[in-house]
From TrEMBL:
<dbReference type="InterPro" id="IPR007627">
    <property type="entry name" value="RNA_pol_sigma70_r2"/>
</dbReference>
<dbReference type="GO" id="GO:0016987">
    <property type="term" value="F:sigma factor activity"/>
</dbReference>
<keyword id="KW-0804">Transcription</keyword>
<comment type="similarity">
    <text>Belongs to the sigma-70 factor family. ECF subfamily.</text>
</comment>
<dbReference type="Pfam" id="PF04542">
    <property type="entry name" value="Sigma70_r2"/>
</dbReference>
<dbReference type="Pfam" id="PF08281">
    <property type="entry name" value="Sigma70_r4_2"/>
</dbReference>
<protein>
    <submittedName>
        <fullName>RNA polymerase sigma factor, sigma-70 family</fullName>
    </submittedName>
</protein>
<keyword id="KW-0731">Sigma factor</keyword>
<dbReference type="GO" id="GO:0006352">
    <property type="term" value="P:DNA-templated transcription initiation"/>
</dbReference>
<keyword id="KW-0805">Transcription regulation</keyword>
<dbReference type="InterPro" id="IPR036388">
    <property type="entry name" value="WH-like_DNA-bd_sf"/>
</dbReference>
<dbReference type="InterPro" id="IPR014284">
    <property type="entry name" value="RNA_pol_sigma-70_dom"/>
</dbReference>
<dbReference type="InterPro" id="IPR039425">
    <property type="entry name" value="RNA_pol_sigma-70-like"/>
</dbReference>
<feature type="domain" description="RNA polymerase sigma factor 70 region 4 type 2">
    <location>
        <begin position="128"/>
        <end position="178"/>
    </location>
</feature>
<dbReference type="GO" id="GO:0003677">
    <property type="term" value="F:DNA binding"/>
</dbReference>
<feature type="domain" description="RNA polymerase sigma-70 region 2">
    <location>
        <begin position="35"/>
        <end position="99"/>
    </location>
</feature>
<dbReference type="InterPro" id="IPR013249">
    <property type="entry name" value="RNA_pol_sigma70_r4_t2"/>
</dbReference>
Length: 188
């Protein structure tokens, strides 16, 4: 069974009566695309999910939505911008659908060290950064993720559908919050 057979099965189980077919050449192109943007998808999923299983579920949902949208992709849009937009929209929707998310957030903060140790090996400051990012609302998480990826304010604004001025202001405020967060941890 191929990767694309699995995508078709997933799509079929989600209620589509006839799974969409993609030409073989486009499937190969999509495979190359996924390999190139795999790290981006994983980073978005890591920011918007708690625990390895939720992260896998979110990655699966992002890939499925990218696969559905891939035949309609227009080259006049930047590939990374298009990928971020879909990944972030799927991730935000994923959060909205999770009714028990708030309860998990509380449990997550209490068991943070145990859960972060289950992730890939990351240095302590990066763990602290991820903990901080998890405290942000969905929009600010997206903004922070794009900023940390090195996106320019103009590109972030385009992806998120806001003005560059709003992006600059939000980044400034988040940086100030982050500074206070790091200082409070270092003083303990």
């Amino acid at each position: 069974m191929t990767f694309f057979d699995l995508l078709r099965i997933i799509e079929y189980r989600k209620g589509k009566s006839e799974p969409e077919e993609m030409p073989k050449t486009q499937e190969k192109e999509f495979e190359r695309y996924l390999k190139k943007y795999e790290a981006l998808i994983i980073k978005v999923a890591r920011v918007y999910s708690h625990g390895a299983e939720n992260q896998k579920d979110l990655i699966q949902e992002i890939v499925l939505q990218l696969w559905r949208a891939f035949p309609k992709y227009s080259a006049d849009r930047g590939v990374s911008t298009w990928t971020y937009r879909i990944a972030l929209n799927v991730s935000i929707s994923y959060l909205r659908k999770e009714s028990s998310r708030r309860r998990r957030e509380e449990e997550y903060s209490q068991n943070q060290s145990r859960q972060t140790d289950n992730c890939d090996p990351i240095d302590d400051r990066l763990k602290i950064l991820y903990r901080f990012i998890h405290t942000l609302n969905a929009t600010d998480k997206a903004l922070m993720l794009l900023f940390l990826e090195g996106c320019k304010n103009k590109e972030i604004a385009k992806i998120m559908g806001v003005t560059p001025g709003v992006v600059s202001t939000k980044i400034y405020r988040i940086k100030a919050q982050l500074k206070v967060y790091f200082e409070s941890i270092e003083s303990n």
